[in-house]
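Priority: low. Protein: SalK. Input follows.
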Amino acid sequence: MGRVGPGVVTAAFHNFSHELVARHLPAVWDTADPQRVLDARLRAVDATLRRLPGEKTLESAELAESAELALRAAEGCGRAVRPVYAAHADLPIPRAPHLALWHAATLLREHRGDGHMALLAASGLDPVESLVSHSATGQGMSDKWLLITRGWSQEELTAARRRLTERGLLDERGALTEAGTALRDHLEAETDRLDAAPYEHLGAAGVARLTELAKGFTAALVQAGGFPADLLSGAAGKGSGGPAAHSGRN
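Result:
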């Protein structure tokens, strides 16, 4: 997006504390301009992917195939009302297959995420309520990582849970009620509907093959310690450290 200020970032990403964002923007651009940041990010991704799954995986025909499939799916994405996706779509596609796959995964993730943000706003969930209701599904971030990465205080998380309880979406234990589960399920279903275009473009056979390949790469990353073991709020996440918390923007 270039040298944007804190307001643009807070609006685009929805669930970060504006105070956190404003502590770093626009001052960060005096340290490094956007292109330097993009270059550093790509170097970091390259180094991480070479270290975790290993060079043998990166040189495999399967990885090259998955990159081709993911990029083909991304051809079906649309820019309209999807600012974070559109900004990434303007970037060049890296040549190396593992970086091309990472780039395509970023496009697909942010295309879905932008649609999800619109639905969260329409649902009446504010940024903190969106986070804690997602955590209540067992697939969102644990409080530890919400506090570290999103800039909200424990008091703000607690207050959001209180509001959701008063609305009948959480029970007294902080678990989703029947109404809360229905709301989160509706949000996911509608997000899928808004995000159907890239997978319709790829076709059922391509989606099945990409899913098969991606599961293998994801498992390798998890096994190599690519995700913190305590990242997710649910019991399933504690054992795997899987990436489910990053499937959208909560």
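Residues 6-246 form one domain. Confidence is low (pLDDT under 50) at residues 235-247.
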